[in-house]
Amino acid sequence: MSILVVLLSLAAGAYALAVIERWAVHGHLSLTGPAWAALALMGRESLLAHKSDRLFFELGPVLLLVAGLMAVAVIPLAPGLIITDLATGALFLNAALAYVLVALIMAGWGPNGAYAMIAGWRFLGQFIAYAMLIVMPITAVAMRAESLSTVEIVASQAQLWNVLYQPVGFVLFVVAAMGLAWLPPLDLPDATGELAGGVEAEYTGVRLAVLRLARMVIILALAGATVTFYLGGWLGPWLPPWAWSAIKILAVAASMLSVGRYMPRIREARYLALSWKLGISLALANIFVVGVIALVVPI
Amino acid sequence: MTVQMIFLAFFGGAAVWFGVVVFRTHSMVRSALALLFSQTAIGAMFLVMQAEFLGVLQIMMMATEMSVMAIFMVMFMMDPGGMGKMDMTHQKRLSLWVGVIGLLAALLLVWLPDWGPVAQSVPGAHEQAADLGRELLGRSMLIFQSAGLTILTAMVAATMVAIVPNAEQRK
Amino acid sequence: MSELSQYAILFGLSVGVIGFVLSLFGLARAIGRARSEPGKDVPATAGTLSRDPVWVRYHARYAGYALLFLAFDMEMAFMYPWAVVYREEGLIALLDMGVFLAILFLGLLYGWSQGALRRQ
Amino acid sequence: MTIAGAHAGAMTGLRRLISTAMARDLTAFVLPGASVARSMGLDLAGSPLRIVGTPRHANLLIVVGPLPPGLRDAAAVTYAQMPRPRAILALGAGDIAPLPDADVSAPLTRAGLRSGLADLRRVIAAGAFRADSGEFNAPALEVRVEYTCPMHPEIVRDAPGDCPKCGMTLVPRETASDGHGGHGGHVMPREDRPNPADHAHAGHAQDAGGSGAYICPMHPEVISDAPGKCPKCGMNLAKAEEVESHGHGHGHGHASHAPSAHGDHAGQDDKAGGSGAYTCPMHPEVISDAPGKCPKCGMNLVKAEEVESHGPGHGHGHGDHGGYGKQQDHSGHDGHAGHGGHSKAAIDGIEPHFMSMVEMTKDQPRSSDGLQMDWIKVPFGPFFPGLPAGLRLTLTLDGDTVAASDATSLVGATDLMDGPQMRVADFVERLATMMPLSPVSYRALACAAIEVAAGVEPDHDARRGRAAAVERERIASHLNWLAEFGLQSGFLWLAARAGALQLAVQGADVAGIATQAGAIRRLSRRVQAAPLMRMRLRRIARIGKDAPASGPVDRARGGGSDARTGDPTLKDLGFEMRVRNGGDALARLRLRCDEIAQSLDVIAAAGRIAVPQVPDVDRVSGEGEARIETPRGTASLRVKLANGKVVEADLDTPTDVNIALVETVTAQQELGDALSAVASLDLSPWEVRG
Predict the structure, then answer these.
(1) Between D137, D183, D372, which is nearest C50 by CB?
(2) Which of D383, D395, D492 to mutate to test the interface with A (most CBs of A within 10 A)?
């Protein structure tokens, strides 16, 4: 039952996000727009490049969707409202999102086109930049909660949300999450002005629809992860827990989607250098600081 | 129990099949990703055997590390797309022998030692992770720290081999 | 909910997603199939027809980062179980992991000094 | 009524719904580009459609203005790569062959765009599907299949077979048929087709059963028909048969090309050369006549008696073998099959399966860090989002780094004159329409040159109005550049805002500009202060002071020239040349923002804007030259009048100068940086002459 509820709210969330994305990116606010767009994509030809690796090309979007859904599966929306409350939920989330990389490499390599291939390998570079900054902040969160279960992690924030307990980790995690979902200004693998669509460039018709849907699911999963790890999950006064989850997740997703509109894309070299020189140092310092606080203060 | 065994066999078969694909394909990227999915299947086998932490860790780490391997294969192997249909195998007799000996060794390792009585119940997944942590900080601390040193050695060695230190410093 | 049934749910979800995508593909196919025409199956490159395959040896300039990443990825395997028992173990955990991370950070600094953290 | 690019299938209920959806969800690819459309006053961003960066995601092709001849092939390719159903909206385009007839045509105005889109929606909703839609084909899409070796791209054949160098099966490759450019080949020089040597080789294999090819003992990939020296190491080539006869038993399972393995081949084939060579144990390609150190690794060279070097000066007995001239007689012989089998045998004798990467990739280009990679040529244009439309930028990429670049204009101004003589008004009009990105400046330039030639002086007010008109165009052009740069760099707010302001400014009068001035100044402040902006542009596309450059590119490196400095009219209006230091893309951005601010002041001071009027010249003759500072730099025009008609004209444009900088600013840059660098030059391909 709860699985069905989560899946339905996921569908609703993905649609809401699509509305927000069109508003943020194209400046058109239309409630029905994404529905028409999805229908139109269904009716368009789904092309295949002639010397492509068809298996990779077909599997890329599917794997992306599977990865996104697996990540969503461990996001709690309310007490009891979660698909699977794995004891290693935070780690599992990470594992699922690692396949985003695999999917994009497949999607990039598959069509044997220059833009897509460069985009796929670029995303591997981007992954190397953000990967540690996802993992290390999560470790600090798990230290406080003494568990990897996402439900436990939310429960551990009853007194104080992690965003205040470990703000450095929060900032690192959100930036890394934007890199994972290749959102601007970290949209290196589908940069319009650099690769004319990149990994998405060769996808048309229904395959493109699946790819876009998968992307929305991934953004939602990451927003959900941010809320779960740092913003107290379903916790909040007055409103019922699911409402708090919905509000927080949509707000985080919307801001992640629209912030890139106001700045140019980052350069890959700078991104890597910043992540490794500044980001990892900060992440390690964050772990240390959280470690000291956790030993001194019993919350 | 039987359902568990069926899934174990399924994922085991998948792991072997992907392992075969590694050598049957001409494309380097396919080869690398086949190895990736073979390792993922092994991770799924761990899950079926209720070793959750180990399984999830395997599924996560292999995805990332095999992807990194893929880029190095594409960097250094000729014709990474396999468009020339070049045969990737060579030294067949030697590899056959090595393979057979390796298989025998693995089988011996499975059958010969005394693995003790079969556990009747599996500790919970959270307990597994916590036990592992206690082990790291207790009895196996030395092993843990030497693992750190080993990783350091690997980092230094990799840097020394692969990085040209005197190349012009570009920003 | 037992752990095995949780894994079964995840497996079922994955299979379900594949089924969902396949049914979408089937629907799209019923609406209309792609028609092969000259030039259509060539990857689009901004109006210039470029038929040459691009699967060649790709020079990844982040190779130095990638090597260090492998080491750091390995290290994270130890971090998770450590994090779970951190408060239980207390100071010894902090010191133990402090030493471990210091060793790794040393490796990062070495790589940095040797120029691994730049475009090659 | 259906569209030309309808999807296959009869109209049913479901398809009707889908058609409605398509009509509501228009995704457009704009030819030649969104920047040109804005310059022509079209507000595409404010229309109910989404502009996409790749034809794959578009269902609508919008052709803005007449399609230049140089872009017709590219337009056909773009259309062919759109998935069906696809529609064409032509706005003031006229003939658009080889594209199919436009589904909807409308005049090139805002009203035309509105009504055209409305019509198009109706057409798509009614006819996105059709049971029997015609196939689209164009000369640019024709394909010829040739065969090439995956390892040796220089091997190109017309028929299948094996590679003469490594024996691998040649793989088919499609290329554009002859006469149509734009097939991005590999960078390595390619042997001419049909290759005379191959035919000679084939004939040779057929008539001289006993004799074989000549192979370098050290480099099995070097195969020649005639005896000679190895181009790689200078060793004398050995006969393949002899190598082959002694070669069995080696080859199998060698993990490296150890010198001794080759030594066996070489040593047994010909003992004529007596002297021992010195070779490096690690680098078998290093061969020396005298002992010493390896130049690559510094190890001591070892004397390898068995490695017969056949050093220079040693005679050997194959000089007359085979007779090259005799082989030439067979050069017309169609013997590809025999040739393939032969070379395969020769290779098999040496190494049946294993190929050394070191050996095989020696000749390939090296990257800056010394690694050998394959380079690919990737086109970024003529319709690349964020780059100037009509510019065909081809980057040779080594991974994601630019190893070489080539920028050509497909829309360059060809002939200034369309006949031996032109009426003055026609000439001015022609020049202005030739430059769709800055028509007012070129109109002013043409008028000024003709006035000088005719000896006419425009009055004070006309000069002021004209100067203000050029300054207004400068603001619009710089805003257009900002919008394009926003698109290129993913700064979408900037793209939307600057594009909207450009549309508001470019036709406005003094009062209209005054109302926009505040918004424009805020925009330019905000752009410069945007996060990541410095990081994105600083030290990108640096141009030294010695490289020739024009316009803002020139003035952004601390100095430079401006044709406006000597103009007394502009001096009256308070003009002063703006300069920025740095010479990089950031300095250019800042300078353009400065110039926008200054132009606003100049327009306010001038108080009137008057588009230059064609001077009234009456059957005069004479010559004149004028210079004007267009938004992109100094343009100069020389005209010769005879009896009131233009008989000769010669134009120098800033893009002519700046396009040569593309190579400098992209060399060894990361792809994104290289594209930002090209964008920062603000090229107008229309200005390129020739």
Answers:
(1) D183
(2) D492
**Strand stretches in D120-258, DSSP E:** 129-130, 143-148, 156-157, 171-176, 214-215, 223-224, 238-239
CA–CA dist D492, A18 (Å, integer): 17
- In this prediction, residue B85 carries a pLDDT of 67
- pLDDT tens digits, residue range D234-265? 555 555 444 333 333 333 333 333 333 333 33
Cβ D373–B78 below 8 Å, yes or no?
no
* Any C CB within 8 A of B1 CB: no
Instruction: Tell me which chain A residue has its CA closest to the CA of residue D530.
Output: A263
Query: Which pLDDT score is estimated for A121?
Result: 92
The alpha carbon dihedral of A105, A107, A108, A113 has a sign of positive
Q: ω into residue D98 within 30 of 0, thus cis?
A: yes
A299, A160 Cβ separation under 8 angstroms: yes
Model pTM score? 0.82
Chain B residues inside the 8 Å CB shell of C74: 61, 151
- pLDDT profile of chain B (171 residues), mean per 10: 87 93 86 92 92 91 90 83 70 89 93 84 85 85 86 87 62 38
Residues 6+ apart with CB under 8 A from D137: C37, C38
Q: What is the ipTM score, two decimals?
A: 0.88
pLDDT per residue over D532-569, tens digit each? 889 888 888 888 888 888 888 888 888 788 888 888 88
Q: How far is D4 from chain B (nearest CA, A)?
A: 36
Measured from the Cβ of residue D225, the count of other Cβ atoms closer than 10 Å reads 22
CB contact under 8 A, D80 and C52: no
Q: List the domain range (segments joined by +) for residue A134.
A: 2-296
What is the pLDDT, as a whole number, of residue D561?
84
∠ CA D175-D179-D183, nearest 5°, is: 35
D378/D399 Cα distance (integer angstroms): 11
Helix axes D439-454, D424-434, angle to 10 degrees: 150
What tokens appear for A106 in the block?
């497949």
**Residue D651 reports pLDDT greater than 60:** yes
Are D367 and D403 within 8 A, CB to CB? yes
- Got the DSSP string for D522-591? HHHHHHHHSTTHHHHHTTSS---TTS---THHHHTTT----TTTT-HHHHHTT------SS-SHHHHHHH
The closest CB to that of C34, out of A47, A114, A196, belongs to: A47
Pairing outcome for strands D422-423 and D376-380: unpaired
Q: Give the helix/strand (H/E) hosting A20.
A: helix A2-26
Short-list C51, A140, A10, A78, CA closest to D184: C51
β-sheet with D276-279: strand ranges across: D287-288, D276-279, D302-308
CB contact under 8 A, B53 and A91: yes
The neighbours of chain A, by the rule of 3 or more Cβ pairs under 8 Å, are B, C, D
Decide: residue B118, CB within 10 A, 0-12 exposed, 13-18 middle, 19+ buried: exposed
Domain count across chain A: 1
Q: How far is CA D346 from CA A60, B73, D349, D452, in A?
A: 43, 30, 5, 76
Burial of D142 (0-12, 13-18, 19+ CB in 10 A): middle
DSSP strand pairing (D376-380 vs D104-106):
unpaired
Alpha-carbon span B126 to B124, nearest angstrom: 5
- Helix, coil or strand: residue D215: strand
Partners of D652 in the beta sheet? D636
Burial category of A200 from C-beta neighbours within 10 Å (exposed 0-12, middle 13-18, buried 19 and up):
buried
Tell me the nearest-neighbour CA distance from A58 into chain B, angstroms: 14
- Residues on chain B touching C58 (C-beta within 8 angstroms): 71, 74-75, 80
Interface test with D, best of C54, C59, C120 (most D CBs within 10 A): C59
Pairwise CA distance, residues B140 & A49, whole Å: 54
Low-confidence residues of chain A: pLDDT under 50: none
